[in-house]
Amino acid sequence: MKRLNLLCCCVASLLLLSTAEEAEDASKLTKRDRSHLESTLKLNEDKPADDFSGVLQRLRKIYHSSIKPLEQSYRYNELRQHEITDGEITSKPMVLFLGPWSVGKSSMINYLLGLDNTPYQLYTGAEPTTSEFTVIMHGPKLKTIEGIVMAADSARSFSPLEKFGQNFLEKLIGIEVPHKLLERVTFVDTPGIIENRKQQERGYPFNDVCQWFIDRADLIFIVFDPTKLDVGLELEMLFRQLKGRESQIRIILNKADSLATQELMRVYGALFWSLAPLINVTEPPRVYVSSFWPQDYHPDTHRDLFLKEEISLLEDLNQVIENRMENKIAFIRQHAIRVRIHALLVDRYLQTYKDKMTFFSDGELVFRDIVEDPDRFFIFKSILAKTNVSKFDLPNREAYKDFFGINPITSFKLLSQQCSYMGGCFLEKIEKAITRELPDLLGSIGLGKKPNVLSCDITGCGETPKNRYRKP
Against a cut of 0.70, is the pTM above it? Predict the structure, then answer.
């Protein structure tokens, strides 16, 4: 018994000694120079931020007066599940981090913000550590905000997240950090994708939540590391949700300095081979190869290459920050185009229904035939023929089966009836916003002009009600 106790004491001493040596070695690791990061992201500049309050006020005015009436009248939110709030219009650019578990997403955020070994740092580790959607934003002091508080605050852009249920709100957390970079951008860290776990076990619709953030992200970082290149069902579903957002995707091969040159080439090729079936674009996506954490690169690796790749990625991030207003206006214009197309389609469904109805017709059966086979009645082809809508912008036909399943066709009015003496016609106003008001607002930013705020209050941002009863 005494020998056993002595053996246990010796083993414990050795473990303590090895732990102390590992801690000492970790403390001796050389920290990476951050000067390139601060200069590329302009963290050392003291110039005041551009004042876009006038632009944002006019953008809100255009949305509420020219886009939202048609959006609400034809219930666009029930088709796309995307309702724009004032908080979303005024929000900062959002950078979304996606990828498998333990590939370095949280470590990358810590590195970009310089949070390592500070009270603000995100928890990292070799095991799956991030189980929440974590929103890192600017604040006067370090503060943690619960998901239910974020969703209840209408001033923020996260109030629509309530629709995903209380289980999700318990997995949503906000962290305010007093950092200069966060004055211009917001980071969102997501739970790592674990392919051997069923989505239902998360307790909330994970893919739907990801889609919500994807729709609002200005830049999407998809992070991999050399040990996690396999594509499973959940990651494949995620890439399907990214269709149409290829220009905002940046693929990152992290922890690249842990491989020798020949191994790195093989891993790089394997990553492309895995992703090729998922990204259906002519030009392959840009893959950034580096190691994003505060420790210096491993010796005998391609230090210069990794540094250039890192600077290139930082320049992409800075470009998104610099173009935040242009991207915001373009986003609202794209939303307006989709609302217009939806209204034109509903109007065409309704007009066809009225044309086919007779005194003895069963309205439910007539409309069922139209919804089941819209091509037979030239619903979509007539839109292409009579308007300047591109066929690539038309929504899925199947989506309207579900849409009209919960929204009876008789609950809508024709576009020709959506007019008033003082307010004008809904269709005319949204077309004017798409073709004139939003492009003019975008041009005023490019020319360095600040639109007159008072003109919005007087004329409704250039919209003068038309008197259709006055003779020319």
Answer: yes
Q: How far apart are CA 343 and CA 415, in angstroms?
A: 8
Give the largest Cα separation in the chain, rounded: 111
Task: Give the rounded percent of residues in the chain with a pLDDT score beyond 70.
Answer: 83
HSE-CB for 326 with a 13 A CA cutoff: 11
Distance, CA of 50 to CA of 448 (rounded, Å) = 10
Q: Which among 145, 146, 139, 150 has a CA at the least distance from the CA of 176? A: 139
Amino acid at 356: K
Task: Give the Cα separation of 355 and 382 in Å (integer).
Answer: 15
Tell me the CA end-to-end span of the chain in Å, nearest whole number: 110
- 402 is written with which tokens? 């579900």
Express each pLDDT in 309-332 by its tens digit: 999 999 999 999 999 999 999 999
pLDDT in tens, 214-266: 988 999 999 999 887 777 788 888 888 888 788 899 999 999 998 888 898 89
